[in-house]
Amino acid sequence: MADISKIDGEALARGVKVLGEGGLVAIPTETVYGLAADATNGEAVARIFEAKGRPRFNPLICHVSSIAMAERYVEIDPLSRRLIDAFWPGPLTLVLPIKENAPVHPLVTAGLSTLALRMPQGVARDVITMLDRPLAGPSANTSGRISATTAEAVADDLGAKVDLILDGGPCPVGLESTIVKVEGDTISLLRPGGLAAEEIEALTGMPLKRLDQRAAIQAPGMLASHYAPRAAMRLDVREVQPGEALLAFGPIRAQDAENVSYQLNLSETGNLREAAVHLFDYMKRLDAAGVATIAVEPIPHEGLGEAINDRLARAASPRE
């Protein structure tokens, strides 16, 4: 049975103790709940892969509490520093060259010469500050399945595989972080997420380079099949088929939507930020209804819609 503690000073201290002893702690961030372990402890990091059933070739995001901590582990170029100054703490991960002899365990980087680094907001940052070590922290869910945005979702999925779940309530962003990589005068978008690409482009005055989905894995979240419910997913539907559940968006319904048994609307008003917050929770709830297929109404691709559609496309991809 999962051990869940509402967040207070005692719970935070307990979480730090568990992490310091090589344990796993599910921690809320502004994006989703993370399955955290001491990134310098190889045995602890290995437990993340075991608990999630995650392939070892898929790297992990490393979380820090300050720029000074980040500089212990990576080389930060001027353009990446501009992004850090503008968007940290927050839902932005940067893939940066790892320093020689940096004490992050090689399992975190999956053998790459780079490290995916982020500074989270809130409780997670407090825990890292108290521990004074970076945390490896992928989403707290079984690999390939729907990410958890509540403590209850973590418990339902991973249960006793986690030593402690810190309950901070629902995550306010609801999508994993945006991941980018700076190479010379090019910024590549490796994974769209909780920071809209347009905000990065507005700051830098540079277009983000989008990678082909078949590109080699350079960061977490790049597997073709990911974030998947047990049910099949059918996207951009204009007409609902008998027996399907409906993941709706906006005020206008797909044809025959009135006949579905299960329906949830990501945002009645068509607000993409609200839709992002609800995405994983609503996918999980419709999946729990036991339907064979979840039909998804069209969602615009601008702003956070790019990340929402990315998650839906990966959830609908053929299962590996």
From TrEMBL:
GO cellular component: cytoplasm
Protein name: Threonylcarbamoyl-AMP synthase
Binding site for L-threonine: T31, S177
Keyword Plastid: no
This protein's UniProt keywords: ATP-binding, Cytoplasm, Nucleotide-binding, Nucleotidyltransferase, Transferase, tRNA processing
GO biological processes: regulation of translational fidelity; tRNA processing
Residue stretches making up the YrdC-like domain: 9-195
Catalytic activity field: L-threonine + hydrogencarbonate + ATP = L-threonylcarbamoyladenylate + diphosphate + H2O
Coiled-coil ranges per UniProt: none
Chief localization: cytoplasm
Binding site for ATP: R54, N58, H63, T114, R118, S139, S147, R191, Y227
Domain of life: Bacteria
Lineage: Bacteria, Pseudomonadati, Pseudomonadota, Alphaproteobacteria, Hyphomicrobiales
GO terms of molecular function: ATP binding; double-stranded RNA binding; L-threonylcarbamoyladenylate synthase; tRNA binding
EC number, UniProt record: 2.7.7.87
Keyword set includes S-adenosyl-L-methionine: no
Stated family: Belongs to the SUA5 family.
PROSITE patterns: YRDC (PS51163)
Cited function: Required for the formation of a threonylcarbamoyl group on adenosine at position 37 (t(6)A37) in tRNAs that read codons beginning with adenine.
Pfam families in the record: Sua5_C, Sua5_yciO_yrdC
Enzyme class, first EC level, given as a word: transferase
Cross-referenced PANTHER family: SUA5 (PTHR17490), THREONYLCARBAMOYL-AMP SYNTHASE (PTHR17490:SF16)
Source organism of this protein record: Phyllobacterium leguminum
Residues making up the signal peptide according to the UniProt record: none
Intracellular or extracellular location(s): Cytoplasm
